[in-house]
């Protein structure tokens, strides 16, 4: 058997200085393959379409993440009728302030696309070669095959085919995929249905979870820092219907600390004289450790002065 070719590390190709690291900054790496995953009815398709509109128009995805590369998008939406796909794309375009008529999203309209069939792989290959998309969106994975998703040996060849498309045509690939039932407590990648090959395959992965009326988006990258639990909501402002980021909720611990500070500051404001630690605690009806921490914070911030007589608000 002939020996495998090797190259000294210092002679490997250097990254091009003018090649962007991001397709969508912070959200999807340049020419990345990856998963948009989550439970049913948590906005996976809306998020995939938002990526499509952003790349096709050059506008920020979710009105937050800057698009660094703009170009054609190729989309196959297996579970939605064409008029539903159009309606959703129109709504997202309206939210983004984009002219829908000029939006360069090419929708594959065949009723079935099976990536476990050689002739379908060839047809998709030729379509990608024709349009040279910056982004290929396939939604969802379960409608693209008849294999056993739990068997790595059956999943891996399909993912390898998509990786070959990405490398040959320098296109990003976003694959929409479902999470397992009852896996809401698990990490995003671990909650995906089927083989762990799916999680390992992605260069950029987006995981959605429902949290009451809101959605949580976790962003994961192979070669960059991610973001955890970004809050999203599906907002309707006819004709626009699109996902948007919303203000981050204050963590419960931080909210409790802020409430404690406000309570003690109010007690010292109303006091006619300095109060000892004991008197502050009794008036606030809080634990000693909470009062001590709050007083130390107020002292450090210059809001409170401590003397031999006790604590008083700084005038």
Question: Explain this structure to me?
Answer:
With 315 residues, this protein is an alpha/beta fold. The N and C termini lie far apart (85 Å). It has 8 helices and 13 strands. The protein has helices at residues 44-57, 82-96, 118-131, 152-169, 197-201, 252-270, 277-284, 288-300; strands at residues 22-24, 28-29, 33-38, 73-77, 105-107, 135-139, 172-178, 204-211, 214-221, 227-237, 240-245, 304-307, 310-313. The strands form 3 sheets. It has a 9-stranded mixed β-sheet, with helices on both faces. A two-stranded antiparallel sheet has the order 1-2. The longest helix is centred in the C-terminal third of the chain and has 19 residues, at 252-270. Strand 8 (204-211) and strand 9 (214-221) form a beta hairpin. Helix 1 (44-57) crosses helix 2 and helix 6 packs across helix 8. The protein is elongated, with a radius of gyration of 26 Å.
Features:
2 domains, 13 strands, single chain, 9-stranded mixed β-sheet, alpha/beta, Arc Repressor Mutant, subunit A, two-stranded antiparallel ribbon, 315 residues, Rossmann fold, 8 helices
Can you tell me the number of structural domains? 2
Contiguous runs where pLDDT drops below 50 for at least 5 residues:
none
Roughly what fraction of the amino acids lie in strands? 15-25%
Placed side by side, the strands forming the largest sheet appear as 5-4-6-7-3-8-9-10-11
User: What is the CATH H-level superfamily of the largest domain?
Assistant: P-loop containing nucleotide triphosphate hydrolases
Listing every helix as H and every strand as E from the N terminus to the C terminus, the arrangement reads EEEHEHEHEHEHEEEEHHHEE
Shape: elongated
Distance between the termini: 85 Å
Proportion in helices? 25-40%
Radius of gyration: 26 Å
Main pleated-sheet profile: 9 strands, mixed
CATH domain class name of the largest domain: Alpha Beta
Secondary-structure arrangement, i.e. CATH architecture of the largest domain: 3-Layer(aba) Sandwich
């Amino acid at each position: 058997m002939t020996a495998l070719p090797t190259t000294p590390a210092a002679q490997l190709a250097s990254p091009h200085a003018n090649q962007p690291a991001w397709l969508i900054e912070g959200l999807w790496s340049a020419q990345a393959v990856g998963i948009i995953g989550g439970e049913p009815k948590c906005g996976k398709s809306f998020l995939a379409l938002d990526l499509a509109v952003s790349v096709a128009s050059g506008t920020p995805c979710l009105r937050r993440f800057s698009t660094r590369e703009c170009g054609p998008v190729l989309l196959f939406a297996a579970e939605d009728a064409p008029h539903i796909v159009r309606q959703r794309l129109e709504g997202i375009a309206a939210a983004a302030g984009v002219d829908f008529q000029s939006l360069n999203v090419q929708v594959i309209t065949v009723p079935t696309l099976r990536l476990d069939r050689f002739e379908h792989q060839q047809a998709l290959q030729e379509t990608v070669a024709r349009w040279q998309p910056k982004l290929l969106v396939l939604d969802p994975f379960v409608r693209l095959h008849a294999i056993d998703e739990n068997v790595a040996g059956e999943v891996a060849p399909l993912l390898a085919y998509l990786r070959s498309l990405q490398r040959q045509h320098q296109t990003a690939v976003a694959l929409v995929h479902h999470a397992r039932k009852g896996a809401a407590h698990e990490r995003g990648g671990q909650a995906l249905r089927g083989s762990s090959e799916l999680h390992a395959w992605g260069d950029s992965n987006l995981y959605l979870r429902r949290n009451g009326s809101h959605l949580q988006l976790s962003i994961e990258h192979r070669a960059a820092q991610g973001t955890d639990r970004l809050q999203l909501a599906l907002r309707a402002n006819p004709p626009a219907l699109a996902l948007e980021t919303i203000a981050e909720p204050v963590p419960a611990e931080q909210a409790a600390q802020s409430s404690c500070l406000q309570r003690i500051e109010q007690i010292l404001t109303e006091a006619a004289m300095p109060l000892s630690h004991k008197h502050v605690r009794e008036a606030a009806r809080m634990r000693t450790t909470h009062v001590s921490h709050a007083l130390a914070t107020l002292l450090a911030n210059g809001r409170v002065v401590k003397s031999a007589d006790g604590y008083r608000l700084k005038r």
